[in-house]
Amino acid sequence: MSKFADLGLKEPINKALVDLGYESPTVIQEKAIPQILSSSEDLKAFAQTGTGKTAAFSLPIVELADDKDKTSQAIILSPTRELAVQIGKNIEDFSKYLPDLKVVTVYGGANIEQQIKQLKRGAQIVVGTPGRTVDLIRRRALKLGNIKWLVLDEADEMLNMGFKDELDKVLEATPDTKQTLLFSATFPREVEAIAKNYMNNPVEVTSGQKNQGSDNVTHQYYLVSERSRYPALKRIADVNPDIYAIVFCRTRRETQEVADKLIQDGYNADSLHGDLSQAQRDSVMEKFRKKNIQMLVATDVAARGLDVDNLTHVINHKLPDQIENYNHRSGRTGRAGNKGISVVLVNRKERGKLNPIERILKKKFIETSIPTGKEICEKQLFHLIDKIEKSEVNTSEIDTYLPNIYDKLKDFSREELIQKFVSLEFNSFLSYYENAPDLNNMASNDRGERGRGRSGRMASEDMTRFFINLGRKDRLNPAKLMGLINEQGINNKVEIGAIDILDTFSFFEIDKNFESDTLDAFSANSPEFNGRRVNIEITKTERKGGGGRRRGGSGRSRRSDDNPSKGFGRTRNNKKKPFPKKENSKGRDSRRSRRR
Ligand code: AMP
Known about the structure:
41% of the residues lie in helices and 16% in strands. By secondary structure, the chain is of the alpha/beta class.
């Protein structure tokens, strides 16, 4: 592969690239850099994040800009503040041995006067978000009359974000003689229209096949039901103890909900979306970059500009509305020569949406089973044993305690000690997953098999049917009823069967073996629900046709994944024992441990 020096860049730039550790150009760099250096033709580049596209357009500009002329010669537009800042920083790095070459980055949400001052001092290269750039043009602080290069980075995303008018304005404010460089991961009609209207016979370059994902990414899908979507996400995290992932959601609300649930369940997660202040977003991204957060739940837009190379997974909690965005998402993993996995959670109805994506990727999604409790336990156990094997022991810190410890444990054999240790770490984990349902079966239930007594589910005759004096009028729904039952601390193995919610009262089934435990628990706790004292009774009434709404697919255990109790292997930082006794305190405990 050719080295940068062969591309014709001057020495100060090559030196800066050596400092950055860039040894060989990436595919897009190899194609775009000589093209831009040698020709003033417009350029249309198919490139996703992670392909090295920033250097592909920045290096020739740094090379060719006249550093003795202080007017703005290049304007680079990017969809988000984060990406703009990243590009500005990259250009500073590339030009560190060219002291007269200045770059200014302008974006909304920051002091405009400050940016105006910086522009007045003179900058050959300006990087900006569309809105702020237009604002500065209007205020005549940014003059584009001498522009030689206009870069539209992530053009598809800028249009997705509704910046069409701003792009038009910037394009119109620049001279016709400029060279336009358009970089986009996808080329929907709107982007093609920009290319057609504002570019002259552009040369096309690609970072591989158009729109095709990285070869380093494996694409998997898990078939889920709506109820098993979140538990499946947890299991994917649990079976990958070293997971470092972005979990993509479609809306801010979905993002916040998923992140809140993960945090409450003790995972090392946080959210990133547009409802957060800029300071909050910066802080979350910094924590994620430093790997203080293992799972970042984000919207597509907010995740833009987050420059992280070593993600193990990209998880599509829901598929993006526009299939082209799948490529953007999955391109966040498998970067810089690493391997990555892009995971999609789909229900049966959504399964068909994978076909057009497969056509774009020219790759098949691999159908993957949601890990079983046993698989997770094994994975976690051996992960722990591996960690023990590799951990360094610093006896100086524990020296003083060791004689006492040795003395206390002297009567145990090596095998006994290992067994005790493993049990201590794993009994709670094993019991957590012991009765966990097969979530793959739950996905099948979406096909209308709910309530037909699939294997693994308790039969109706093994259940006791209870009457409860609450109904729809009390705002009771199946989830709330299950929460109410779970709160009574009956027994963590109890299965809840069919639930029928009626207007003023309801019915639910409980494993016969826990009939009296259930009565005792409700009577001892005297729970209230929305201000009403709760009463339950055993009912002898038969369910019509054996139907009713059966909850939990393969039968719901209070330890099932839907119960927000703890999985394990979640948090790198979460050193506390998982599965604390009280369910409500679990969330709070884990939150606290995370913040420590
Ligand atoms: P980009 O696609 O511009 O967001 O770049 C993705 C990542 O690859 C960034 O962290 C860059 O610093 C890095 N990168 C870009 N080009 C190279 C190169 N030729 N060698 C090594 N790393 C690179």
